[in-house]
Amino acid sequence: KFTADGDRVNRVVTRDFLKTAGGFYFAVLSERKQDGRYPATLRYVRDADGWRKPSWQSSLELLRRESPELLFHSQCWDVELPGIPADVIEEHFSGLERAEQLVQAETEDQVSLTTQRVLRKLVEKGVVIETLGVSGSLLIGAHTDSSDVDLWTDSIESFQLLRSYAQLHQQRQSASEEHWRFAYKRRGCSLSVEEYLWYEKRKFNKFWLDGLKIDLSLNRPAEEHIWEPGRKLKELEFE
Questions:
Q1: Rounded CA gap, 42 and 21, in Å?
Q2: H or E element: which one contains 38?
Q3: In a 3-state reduction of DSSP, which class is residue 184?
Q4: How sure is the predictor about 226, in pLDDT bands with cuts at 50, 70 and 90?
Q5: How big is the CA angle at 14 (ends 11 and 210), to the nearest 5 degrees?
Q6: Which SS3 state, helix, strand or coil, does residue 228 take?
Q7: Torsion-angle region of 102 (φ positive above 0: left; ψ -120 to 50: alpha; else: beta)
Q8: What are the helix (H) ranges across 154-218?
Q9: How many other β-carbons are positioned within 10 Å of the β-carbon of residue 13?
Q10: Tag placement on the chain: N or C end, fewer CB within 10 Å?
Q11: β-strands 212-218, 149-153: how paired?
């Protein structure tokens, strides 16, 4: 458990996780509430059989059956999605606190060791540890030996340093085409594999280390998000 002390880590931010009854673990989509709820997505469920990661559609179906009160219609995004009121949160997993723990603590499993190695190197390069967070399975202890590592920062300056670090790794290593193509298959996008690789390789927001994929993200401040109610009109295809 990563129960937070202090206002900084107690504050719920994007990419933190919230646990509710039923063994539901939600990833926060925005720290700004809508209708008194944190908009979120159900990423993991833990029951007697262990951890499982439902798809978006199956997660909605599960909640409709077992916890329909956690679903709401977002007026901002014109979509049905989970919304977590503060009074149903059983546990808050702070990505900021988890990053600091990983930098300092002794750890044994490979994913934690690799993440610790990356975080310490980033700090050596000038990234302020207080701007770094962890998300995904590693944040809640659901990771396996082959899990991706999800790191984020809430600082533009730190994000540019993270991207420089990723670019350096891409240049030093030749991440095999097998790695990239596996990422493409998991994404399930409508681009061709060649188009996908062209876009992804120039972003410098992912690299591989110790056989693990490291994903880097920037958390934009909530006040920069669009909060005007919207309505979907039609689907367009464009190039």
A1: 12
A2: strand 38-47
A3: helix
A4: low
A5: 115
A6: coil
A7: alpha
A8: 156-172, 177-187, 193-201
A9: 20
A10: C
A11: parallel
